[in-house]
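Notes from the 1:1 (GR / supervisor)

We went over the backlog. Supervisor wanted to see one worked example end to end before approving the batch request, so GR pasted a single chain during the call. The sequence is below; no edits were made to it. Supervisor asked that the structure be written out right there so they could see what the output format looks like.
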Amino acid sequence: MLEHHFTCPYCWETISMLLDNTLPSQKYIEDCEVCCNPIELTVQFQDLELIHFQADSIEQ
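Structure output shown during the call:
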């Protein structure tokens, strides 16, 4: 597991999240711990190292 800090695309607060670095490619939705809005996370690891992280709002 890897702790990663990023900015919420809704409230702009810095939040932290534990990421599972044993799965090379992941895409899922997680609620912001501050404003509770849903964030779409796209994460990629290579050799257990984080190579891509993206946090997007899911508003249409």
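Supervisor's comment: The first strand starts at residue 2 and ends at 7.
Batch request approved.
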